[in-house]
Amino acid sequence: MQHKFATAVLISVLSAVTNNAAELRKQVGVPIEPIKQSASESALATARRSDASDRDAQGNVTRLSLAEHMRRASVYMINRAFEEARAHWEAVLRYYPTDPRVGEALLGIGRSYFQAKDYQDAYEVFNRLAANYSSTKEGREGLNYSAASLLRMGRFDESAARYAEYVQRFPDGERIDTAYLNVVDTLREANRPKEALQWVTKTRQRFAGSATEINAIFAELRLHIAEGNWRDANSTADLLLTKQFSKAVLTSRTEVSYLKAYSLEQEGKKEEAFSAYLAVPDGTDSYYGWLATQHLSKLAGKAKAEIVAQRESRVNTSIASDADLYPAPYRAIIVKSAKSRQLDPRFVLALIRQESVFKPTAKSPSGARGLLQLTIDAAQKYATGAGLNNVREAQLYQPDTSIMLGAEYLEQLARMFPQMLEPVAASYNGGEDNVARWLKRAKRPDPGVFTSEIGFDETKGYVQKVMNNYRVYRQLYTEDLIRR
Asked: Quick check: is 426 in a domain?
């Protein structure tokens, strides 16, 4: 896309939302700027030009300095050009087999397969790394990643054993705290809850007084909820609520309060549950507050309906006052792409707001680009379904292309997870294979319970923010994105 044309399109779209583009930038952080090549894309183009001249007659990468092979591999990996990255790491193995950086190259190869979800190939590389370089950091990483690969292949017992092996072999390893916690969750996925509780005890003893101990108690709370042990869930939640919630803790006081209220409700203690839900504060930025309000509406009855109505009114007033922070640009293409796939256009808007704040030139450190922050491998996977062919990195900055590809991807996710939108949002950020495990582990058809099971802190926060956005967009706009 030419710079002048890109700028004109963006200004035109933003002007449709407001007559003052500068005010919109101030409100939602959308800069009016031309699309320009980022440093990593410039490096990618340079690497590809160099590789074109540095290959032999069979198309293989010729010998360069080890540092140059590693540099080009890094450039390709950042841009998720996995095969091109592997070509240079494999060149390191071929041309420099005894160099100390061979372990680093092997780790890169394994991670490239892992990120591409080729878990069997990833496992084989990580296994080799763990076996041959166990005295190095890369070897320890190989053992950890081999467990993660087994987990994603559904080989839960083997995965749990690998994480336990890490605990035994590397008691001071870089990932020792997460290894303990991973044993707990993986044993749950292997349907071995009693052993998982034993590992909770081990973890609490090993990390007494730390954030990891609190995370272990949180794992116990989630286990009790999944297994329907409501009294144990309530007592565990009470214990958690006496703790300090630092940034290293994988939950929040609000989340635990919601889970306690949910457990009370499931135990049949309706009055206590009502009071507990009411204690979860609601607002435009409170995901669990929103869920609590929904439960309150069901539990209230005529006698308490006014209490809930007042709570909802306060939030609606707040939404109305913040309405300018929730614009609906790109209306025509969003409505067309979403409705043709049975998606709510307001959910697509909620995702875009979180992914890029409506900035089509946005690019993440992991190589995601455009309004919906698509990676090139995901874009190429869904291009045909979106009616596109031969998609390249630069096209992901085009608003229409990003929206069409993103909608196609979301349609596939919605088919996989039709029960609720939280797994769809979680998949968009954390991968559908992970979400399938978290959903199965939760065992409860409740959005808040599922969200508590999300294993990546970033993804959990992402889901909550997207759903908060969606709540506001539903209040402000019709399904045709017409302002109410």
From this structure: yes
Range of the domain at 360: 326-476
Domain assignment present for residue 352? The answer is: yes
> Helices 39-53 and 66-78: crossing angle, nearest 10°?
130
CATH of the domain at 454: 1.10.530.10
Q: Which of 434, 473, 432, 467 shows the shortest CA–CA distance to 448?
A: 467
Check if the beta carbon of residue 255 is closer than 8 Å to that of residue 454. Answer: no
pTM, full prediction: 0.89
pLDDT digits (tens, 9 = 90+) for 286-310: 999 999 999 999 999 998 999 999 9
Long-range contacts of 116-125 (CB under 8 A, 24+ apart): 116/82, 116/377, 117/152, 117/431, 117/433, 119/149, 119/152, 119/153, 120/149, 120/153, 122/149, 123/149, 123/150, 123/153
Q: Residue 477: beta bridge partners?
A: 483
Nearest Cα neighbor of 481 from 337, 321, 291, 317 is 337
Report the number of distinct structural domains present in the chain: 1
Q: pLDDT per residue over 308-336, tens digit each?
A: 999 999 999 999 999 999 999 999 999 99
Residue 460 lies in a domain: yes
Quote the CA–CA distance of 91 and 60 in Å, as a whole number. Answer: 9
Q: Is the pLDDT of residue 15 over 50?
A: no
Q: Of the candidates 191, 248, 184, which has an alpha carbon nearest to the alpha carbon of residue 220?
A: 184
Q: Which residue has the tokens 């309405």?
A: 323
On whether the CB atoms of residues 285 and 278 are closer than 8 A, the answer is no
- Residue 378: which H helix or E strand, with range? helix 376-382
> Can you list the alpha helix ranges (DSSP code H) found in 96-192?
102-115, 119-132, 137-152, 156-169, 176-189
What is the distance between the alpha carbons of residues 439 and 449, in angstroms, rounded to a whole number?
A: 9
Between the alpha carbon of residue 403 and those of residues 283, 331, 412, 454, the distances in Å are: 29, 11, 14, 26
Q: Tell me the per-residue pLDDT of 192-220, one tens digit each, with 9 for 90 and over.
A: 999 999 999 999 999 999 999 999 999 99
- 106: nearest Cα among 83, 84, 89: 89
